[in-house]
Amino acid sequence: MSPVRASRASLSRSLATLGILLLCACSDARSHARATAVLIDVSGTYFDQLGEMVRITRAGLLPGIHPGDSFFVIRVEERSYDRTAVEAAINFDAQPSRANAQKLTLSGTLDRFARNARRAQYTDVTGAILLAAEYLRETRAGQKEIIIFSDLKEELPKGAKRSLEPGELTGTEVVAMNVKRLAADEKDPSAYRARLAEWGTRLTRAGASSFRVVLEPEELAQAFAQER
Amino acid sequence: MHSLYLWPDSPALSLVVLWLLSQVLLYAARVPVHRGLRKLGTALGGALRLVARWLRSVSDDLRRRNREVLLEAGRAESEARLEHEFQRLATTFTAELKEYPGLHRRLDESVRTVEEDLKASALTPPEAPGWPEAVQAMANMPKAGDRTVQKVLDEIHRSAVASEKKALSEYREAMARRHKVLAQTAPIWKAIRALLEEVQRAVTGALSASSRIDAYMERYEKIRRGEDLVERGLSASTLNLFIISLFVVAVAGFGGLVNFQLIARPMSELVPSGGWVLGMPISMIAALVIVLMEVAAGIFLMETLGITHLFPRLSGLPASRRRIIFLVALTGLALLAAVEASLAILREQLFEADKALALALAGETARGKVEVAAPLVSKIPVIGQAVLGFILPWILAMIAVPLEMLVESGRHVIGRALQLLVRGSAIVVRLCAHLVRYLTAVLAFVFDIYIVIPLQVERLAKGRAPGAQGPVEAGALRNPTERTVTFKAPR
């Protein structure tokens, strides 16, 4: 090979290497996927809301899910920290049409859940949050979100201990939807507000990036679709 | 502030004492302060002026380089035009000269034929040998008594009349032949006229080409001489070209955006990946690459067709290799256009599926909603998108032409803008230099205003003293040690 050709070949190799390095440097290592855990309360005081909550999840949240996202549905019941409380756990395919098919399957699962769910005696919200946090961490998603459908009135079975440690919910946004007002709340609204404030403090202390309460389903759907 | 008080319990007294102290100290430091301010003004002003001068020289350099580049570009363009005109002229002349021997032969033959015909028509028949007068004389002769003589005379008369008729008939026949010959020359005259018109057209074309060449040569000479008028003209035309090409490229850019939107969604089906590059998913990058590949194929097409000259190496290739590149680029572009058309069809189907899914998730029957649109109407968007997907790549391929113009004119426009920027910066820095010098002078006056009481005391004291000078004037301040501190007005 002549020196000129050799130098040209060397230059080409160098440029190709540089190109690959630049491409690698530009490639985004951060995950752009979103993992969402929906906690649905099936305890006595909230059980009558189940159908509506499933409808909001199906019609408001599922359309906003993108290919590659993860979605979990967890029941809030006596022992929510148990894996059996997970009603559905799906990692959506990167191909949009397959992800759509998965959405349809999930929609059917949610409908079955709404029909066949049994009323729980206690309300282990913290256990459900802990379980959701573990699932969300496992996905390594860039955006983590917990949506709670509950009255947030925790009633643990005898002997159960629950606590949210600092860092448990790091980088996780928590949204409480349709926090039902109990009979005691109607008598004394400050109790309702105090309950919400207490949850806000607990969650942010556990590392949640935000905690907000949403009243209207449309607002939740809109925020969920726009949050990316 | 309170920490400065000498007696915190008596702030007023503290302030008065501080003021008095400052008066004394500043009065004593007046000369060094003035000198310091003057030096500071000179130093800062001088430095800024140096910077301004340097910026100005950079601006001049840029202007000179821009001028050289512009004139060089103009010269190259004129040379190209001249070359083109010469080529046209050479082609025309070659074609015309190739035709000329045939033309000349045809013209020669026509002329010879006409000459022969003229000669043929010039052969006049013999005139009748005075038969009418002889016949008249015979007829007018008195009747002789002799019957024999009378009979001879009658015979002679009859014979003369017959001969006259025969001669007249022959004459008429000869005239008819001449007219026939002359009539036959009419098409030849027409042919000669057509040939002459052809010659005239060729000559006119050559003259027009030569006048164009003259104009180009004149312009070329002006550019070579580097006349300012020509430079301004070139600059204006380059700016026009830049604006127009920028507009066209921007329009093409929007077309590319539409193209991108058309294939972005279906590409996510074809290239499903969770990876992201530069804040975009891989599928969008793939769609973008397809659009850019269409542009690249278009550039190669235009290059191999000789319309653009962005890659001099390509134009230097042999024709056979250029043809290969042309065919490869054309095939690639056609394939990409076909792919885009199919992706556009897929896009519509995907959107239909998405709509059906949304309805299903909302709990409504998808079928009932989809059937609202009639089948014929619902195909229109599909056909439209497919056509758009096929046509847009070809339109994008044309971007090479304005892109070349943009690159060529952009070099001058950016250079010119840079030169103006540097020139503007030089002016601003120069103004700053003046400002700094004036500010230091003003500061010196402010300083003097603050210690006006000691200065007035000094003036009064000196006014009473013998040989005292006049009042202190602005710009010429006398210090206690009899040394003058003068502030010159900044230049």
Secondary structure layout:
The complex is a heterodimer of chains A (228) and B (491).
Chain A lengths: L2 H24 E2 L5 E8 L8 H12 L8 E7 L9 E6 L4 H21 L8 H15 L3 E7 L22 E6 L5 H5 L1 H17 L4 E5 L2 H10 L2
Parallel strand pairs in A: 2-3, 2-5, 5-6, 6-7
Antiparallel strand pairs in A: 3-4
Chain B lengths: L10 H18 L1 H93 L8 H10 L6 H79 L2 H43 L5 E2 L2 E2 H23 L7 H4 L3 H43 L4 H5 L4 H23 L2 H51 L1 H13 L11 E3 L5 E3 L5
Antiparallel strand pairs in B: 1-2, 3-4
Describe the structure.
The complex is a heterodimer of chains A (228) and B (491). Chain A is an alpha/beta fold. Chain A contains seven helices and seven strands. In chain B, the strands form two sheets. In chain B, strands 1-2 form a two-stranded antiparallel ribbon. Chain B has a two-stranded antiparallel sheet with strand order 3-4. The two termini of chain B are 41 Å apart. In chain B, helix 5 (228-270) crosses helix 8 (319-361) and helix 8 (319-361) packs antiparallel against helix 10 (375-397). Chain B is mainly alpha-helical and 491 residues long. At the A-B interface, strand 1, helix 2 and helix 3 of A face helix 5, strand 1 and helix 8 of B.
- Please report the distance between the alpha carbons of the first and last residues of chain B: 41 Å
Main beta-sheet strand count, sense and barrel state of chain A: 6 strands, mixed
Oligomerization status of the protein chains: heterodimer
Query: What name is given to the CATH topology of chain A?
Result: Rossmann fold
State the strand order across the main sheet of chain A.
4-3-2-5-6-7
Could you tell me the strand content of chain B as a percent range? under 5%
Biggest sheet, spatial arrangement of strands of chain B:
1-2
- What would the average pLDDT of chain B be, to the nearest integer? 82
Classify the helix fraction of chain A into a percent range. Answer: 40-55%
Summing up helix and strand content along with how strands pair, one would put the structural category of chain A as alpha/beta
CATH architecture of chain A: 3-Layer(aba) Sandwich
Helix content of chain B: over 70%
**Can you count the helices of chain B?**
12
In CATH, what is the homologous superfamily of chain A?
von Willebrand factor, type A domain
Based on DSSP secondary structure assignment, what is the total number of beta strands of chain B? 4
Spans of at least 5 consecutive residues with low confidence of chain B: 366-375, 467-485
